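Entry 14. Structure prediction run on the chain below.
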Amino acid sequence: MSWLIGSLADAWAEIRVHKLRVLLSLIGIAVSVAALTAVVAVSELAMQSQTEEMDRYGGREATIGVTAIGENGPVDAAAFDERFTKVSERYGFSDVARIAEGLMIPVQAPDGLHDTSARLLDPAYARIHREKLLTGREFRADDAEALAPPVIVSEALWKVLGSVPMAQHPTLTLAGPAGGTYQIVGVRPRQGAWDDEKRIDVLFDSYASRVDRLPEDAQVRYDIWVGRKDVAAVGPALAMDLRAGLPAEQQVIINRTDWGANPGYLEGQRMVELLIGGVAALILGLGALSLINVQLVAMRQRVREIGVRRAFGATAGRIFTTVLLESLVATTVAGVIGIAIVVTALRMPMLTEWLFPALVDVPPFPMRAAITGLVAAVIVGAVAGFVPALVALRVKVIDAIRF
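Output returned:
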């Protein structure tokens, strides 16, 4: 252990003596490690962003969609809901959301009534589909008891209504069977610059309590997030339980709606990451070659120093370890600095929002990226120090006199 500590001390002393040379040679390593770390980290965040985009359409991984249909269209929504509730209680699902789409509800705007596309949602829908809000909040379980039921509007409709801040508790008037005053609790952002559609989301129970029955053209679906481990077994069992005893003219369709049902999705993401990572690794390799060249040139200038050390009894192993650790310590420090710069940059909310505007669940800095950068720095240091260390072994005491 003492020889290792002594070698580290010698290596650190050499770095301090030749700090200008070391600094210049390690700038490229720090930049290369930072680039590699940034590529891996940004790739992780890009995968997270793309996954969330897919979640908004089909639900999180291992989401099951349940729809009941009859020969002439949708079945009695209330009757099937009662049946679904009884069956699902045996499974203990934690995340279940009812969704009714295809509704048109008149909305009172300053310039008159507008037939507006509407969805009826349960609070769990936002969690299953990672819905993003421009401002405000999602539905809560206790919203069904509110005197002014909550609604969430699209950004285009919110601007038509005057863009009243959520702190002022803006309201909305709906016409039709479920007409009345509703409180706007959130605003969905535009899906793109082209998105000017006026839409509203209404709490399912709030709407259902104001009407005798849902419109016949309402397409009701149940989304269940069951988890990756259970999806293969739960789907067929749930289908059998829901179909048992149903009339022949009614069908229950159960299928996975999430992106995880497509095995090629993650493979494509990983391939893109490997391609980008290969470019960063190439940059890191060029930085390593540059460092090896600098170290070899510097080693020729240290022949006298090494020869004197050998004359005073330094062993070949001590010389080899000192030179190797000098490079290893320097590149590790440079790698840590490069990683720290990337971590600081990607932890800035403004940068993350600019790079990935659709990201909802912003993860902490990916540890895989930091570990990859640190391992790369250590490997580069070992490779860059190994060749000069071999050269140092060949230095003889007589060489100190020649130089």
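The CA atoms of residues 7 and 322 lie 5 Å apart.
Filed with the rest of this week's runs.
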